[in-house]
Amino acid sequence: MALKIIASTCTGCSACEPECPNVAIREKGGVFIIDPNKCTECADQYDAPQCQAVCPVDGCIVKV
Question: What is the predicted pLDDT for the residue at 44?
Answer without folding.
Answer: 87
